[in-house]
Write a structure and sequence with these properties.
Length: about 220
């Protein structure tokens, strides 16, 4: 696996790339991609960083694992490629945007349009074996993505972190809440949403309100 990541992030994360755990992780991922079908495609493993340079970043959304179905994962959490059916969590995200902001339900589930505006769509684990959810967890990705969150917290100000569900909320400990804004709610998955933990959270209007308060452009969701 070649660490072909946007230069703005390479500067921030150079130390991580040289640590023993990352070299072990690289070997593991290369081996998995050579022996099995894995997602996202190799060139999109670091897509979240490529679409959202460090200097542009103003919002972070944290997912857990890439989609493991054929053609779904594109390196951005919750996002799918154009023409792919929207997974249940993404449907619920779009439904909440509809009710929160009065916007029409989007045709495309590709969230590159958010990333280009400064939304880092970060999965805690950046790769997965096809049809095997969680298969690349606990191999080093979480250490790396925790370092990403820590770096953002330390080196930037006024970032809005959207932490959806129990797993994402655990990342609060990495964030300096005295200079960043953390919004938490339930996960958009049907299991959580159908129990009343997702709909009506207004994450998207609240995010834009926070950005506007510090003089930043709101996100066109």
């Amino acid at each position: 696996m070649e660490v072909n990541i946007h230069s703005s992030w390479k500067t921030q994360l150079e130390e991580e790339f040289n640590k023993p755990y990352f070299k072990d992780l690289t070997s593991f991922v290369k081996d998995e991609y050579s022996k099995h079908q894995c997602f996202p495609p190799g060139k999109q493993i670091f897509a979240a960083f490529d679409w959202c340079p460090f200097d542009n970043l103003k919002v972070v959304i944290i997912g857990q694992d890439p989609y493991h179905g054929v053609g779904q994962a594109n390196g951005l959490c919750f996002s799918v490629n154009d023409g792919i059916s929207h997974p249940p969590s993404l449907i619920n995200i779009f439904k909440e945007i509809e009710s929160d902001l009065g916007m029409p339900y989007p045709t495309s589930g590709n969230l590159e349009r958010w990333a280009k505006q400064g939304v880092l769509l970060l999965n805690a684990t950046l790769t997965v074996r096809a049809h095997n959810a969680g298969s690349h967890q606990k191999r080093g990705w979480e250490t790396f993505t925790d370092a990403v969150i820590q770096s953002i917290s330390d080196k930037k100000e006024n970032v809005v972190f959207l932490l959806w569900g129990g797993f994402a909320k655990q990342k609060t400990k990495l964030i300096d809440t005295s200079k960043h804004h953390v919004l938490t709610t339930g996960h958009p998955s049907p299991l959580s949403a159908n129990r009343g933990y997702w709909f009506g959270n207004k994450s998207f209007s609240k995010t834009n309100s926070q950005l506007e308060q510090v003089g930043l452009e709101p996100i066109v969701w």
